[in-house]
Amino acid sequence: MKKRIVVLGGGESGAGAAVLAKVKGMDVFLTDMGKIAPKYKQLLAQYDIEWEEGHPHTESRVLAADEIIKSPGVPGNVPILVKAQQKSIPVISEIEFAGRYTDAKMVCITGSNGKTTTTLLTYHILQKAGLNVGLAGNVGKSLALQVATESHDVYVIELSSFQLDNMYDFKANVAVILNITPDHLDRYDYKMENYVAAKFRIMQNQTSDDAFIYWHDDPVVTAQLKHVTSEARMLPFSALDEEDCAACLDESGLMKFNVGGRHWEMPRAQLSLKGLHNVYNSMAAGISATFLNVNDEVIRRALADFEAVEHRLEYVRTVGGVTYINDSKATNVNATWYALESMTTPVVLILGGKDKGNDYSEIEDFVKEKVKAIVCLGVDNSKLHKFFDGKVPNITDARSMPEAVAKCHAYAQKGDTVLLSPCCASFDLFKNMEDRGCQFKDCVRKLDD
Q: Which part of the chain is the Mur ligase central domain (predicted)?
């Protein structure tokens, strides 16, 4: 009798998992309470996979499953999953499922901030080295779909805490934690320790043949490591010149690497990506590639010619001497801290959106020092006003991106920077973070010189 698989969620992750299950000869049913995008319907039809959309999950079908594959956007406490757990039906992630059917090396990257850049940077290095490498997780194509339809020797995978939640036997050959700051606490009972524990699932099942790469200066990461036992090789990185680090930065701005006795160096000034946060991202990617025996000259070239990630400190254009920067990916306070840290001119800052329990005190000093005006872009800006009123010369509200950009244009003078770095999720006024960033860029491009 065929194994019965039910997939919850019909996006990139769910559709990919459904295809892999079908290719492996299983009985597959996919269900999504929202609308499934046409491209995923076509994919499901191509593989003759049954699906439903736009209404509550058909309980009898879901609870008849031998195993449920849950998409990362589906919270673990929805009623249908509670009932499934009561029936002892295993609930796993797409990544867990895909890992069963490939022997490829897995380079897995997580962190509250910087994981997309680091994932793409690592992928870029491995491509330059001529490796047969796939890109998966939060970026690229679904890992399950690639395992079903392609063949790679290495996968570089960006993992959110949501994806890590339902991973049990999966193993990362290289696991990276860049940093951990409060984020998504609404999915973790507003308990930071639950969120931290989810992130640390990335190093479960690692052996002495594997590597764990982490930011040595992150107090949350280093505190949690005291409660973790692992056979993996510990490869920390730091902006300080630390002897025991696999990568560090000396006072002259030289990045120094030492991975298993392999020493090499690269001046920070040669990195294509600017800002201290990108030094960390480059160190993590450089350590990963060195551990995988990539030549250091290849790594240097790749770190020097990598092109920036869309929506992460992305230069849009200069209008009337004012620079416009799109940092829509900054959906938490720490990401905006890094954006402000890299600013060297007076800033007109766009903040706001769906607040996830933010503590704005982390950016208060930078705001007082660098920000001349704040435009609050959201349905409810009361929390922003409560914290920032009186701390900047100008603060105002906008209910749409055209209004926000127009107000920024009025505040900004030659030599200033207009920075969209919202601190918040986008779902109050926009479809998603990408929609917010693209609307910003469209509005900026329409400004008169």
A: 109-287
Query: Is 93 marked as a binding-site residue?
Result: no
On whether both 264 and 412 belong to a single domain, the answer is: no
User: How far is residue 262 CA from its own chain's centroid?
Assistant: 29
Tracing tokens 């690229």 back to the chain, one arrives at 140
Ranges of H-type helices in 201-326? 219-225, 276-291, 296-305
Same-domain pairing of 274 and 166: yes
Q: Are 66 and 92 in contact (CB under 8 A)?
A: no
396 annotated ligand binder: no
- Statement to judge: residues 297 and 330 lie in one domain: no
Full residue range of the structural domain in which residue 435 is found: 314-445
pLDDT at 181: 76
41 is in an annotated binding site: no
Q: pTM here?
A: 0.76
- 396 secondary structure, DSSP code: E
Cβ neighbour number for residue 418 with a 10 Å cutoff: 27
The pLDDT tens digits of the residues spanning 364-376 come to 999 999 999 999 9
73 is in an annotated binding site: no
Domain at 251, CATH number: 3.40.1190.10
Q: State pLDDT tens for residues 85-113.
A: 999 999 999 999 999 999 999 999 998 78
Q: What is the average per-residue pLDDT within 66-75?
A: 91
- Is 111 labelled as part of a ligand binding site? yes
Known binding residue 394? Answer is no
